[in-house]
Amino acid sequence: MKKYSLGHPFAFLIVFLLTCFTSALSQTLDSYIIENRHKMKQAINNGDIDELAQTRQLFERMLMMNQQEWLVHYYIALANQNLYYFVRDDQDQQAKLINDAIEHLEMSLELNKKFAESWTLLANMYGLQIGVDSKNTIQLSKKQKKAIKTATKLEPDNPRLYLVSGRSAYFVPKAFGGGFEKAKADLAKALDLFSSYEPPSDIYPQWGEDETYVWLGQIAAREDSLQLAEYYYQKALKINPEYKWVSNYLLPTLKKKMNATVQSDF
Questions:
Q1: Phi/psi at 246 (nearest 5 deg)?
Q2: pLDDT for the residue numbered 265
Q3: For the chain, how are helix, strand and coil distributed in percent, rounded to 5?
Q4: Which has more pLDDT, 40 or 23?
Q5: How far apart are CA 90 and CA 96, in angstroms?
Q6: Structural domain boundaries of the chain?
Q7: Regarding the domain delimited by 43-155, which CATH topology (the fold level of the hierarchy) does it fall under?
Q8: Hey, do 43-155 and 157-261 end up sharing a CATH topology, with the first three levels equal?
């Protein structure tokens, strides 16, 4: 059988074709990620748990392409996080989603330890895990702090890092390092960073700015700063007009509270 060296024209042709094939495969994966990420956002906006579960399955199939698995594992975990919020009444299912998300994030970081987004999401999953596994709070808190510290070191200006930190502080009592003041400070920092943040690539995570306003709105509502809460909710809808959790639930609930307050003044 005749052998060709790298200097042979056929060898260059083979290398060229393999390069083109790899590039085309990568471009195809990129388009799949962007398209499925859009579907995931639509499912969240519409509160469609079935559609959200389907987007997760599609991300799993993308692993078969053996391209940028570290990023695909991240998106599977992100889908799990969003599914978690849809099954609040099923703690067993929540625990399964969290554990599966952590496994995918660990696989993501095995492939790319410098991907700050996976460290950030991992920190959030540890925070959620505390809610369903309170007996291991101390251990999980240490893991969460380590993940946040690593993410901060890798990408200190990532707004999602402060969104996750602020959202966690919302649920953690002040005595344990959380509280509304810390949450507001972290969320305000996230908004400041969102105003100038540009992802390294179109396929990188881009979620969170609308959600940041939502959490600030919820804090304001809890503190009876109702007009401020309405302002934050409207800002969220300006970014994401199809956000039905805001338009169909949070704002109507706030309006009822505002009307009740006005009536009580008479």
A1: -80, -50
A2: 58
A3: 80, 0, 20
A4: 40
A5: 10
A6: 43-155, 157-261
A7: 1.25.40
A8: yes
Angle between helices 159-171 and 180-194 (to 10 degrees): 160
Report the C-alpha gap between 235 and 224 in whole angstroms: 18
Report the sign of the C-alpha dihedral through residues 60, 62, 68, 71, in that order: negative
DSSP alpha helices (H): ranges in the chain?
Answer: 9-46, 49-62, 69-84, 91-111, 116-132, 137-154, 159-171, 180-194, 209-222, 226-239, 244, 251-264
pLDDT at 132: 83
Tell me the C-alpha distance between 171 and 180, whole Å. 9
Half-sphere exposure of 100 toward its Cβ, with a 13 Å CA cutoff?
A: 18
Distances (CA, A) of 50 to 15, 46, 82, 138: 43, 11, 12, 35
As a whole number, the mean pLDDT across the chain is 88
Asked if 126 and 147 touch (Cβ cutoff 8 Å), the reply is yes
* Residue 125 predicted with pLDDT over 70: yes
Q: Residue type at 208?
A: G
**pTM of the full predicted structure?**
0.86
Residue 266 — pLDDT band, cuts 50, 70, 90? low
Fold of 157-261: 1.25.40
CB 125: neighbour CB atoms within 10 A? 26
> 261 vs 222, 223, 227, CA distance in Å?
14, 13, 12
Is there a contact between 163 and 190 (Cβ–Cβ < 8 Å)?
Answer: yes
Q: Which two tokens mark 32?
A: 């799949």
Q: What is the pLDDT of residues 167-208, one digit of tens each?
A: 989 988 888 788 999 999 999 999 999 999 999 999 999 999
**Tens-digit pLDDT profile for residues 126-178:** 989 988 887 888 888 899 989 999 999 999 999 999 999 999 899 888 887 88
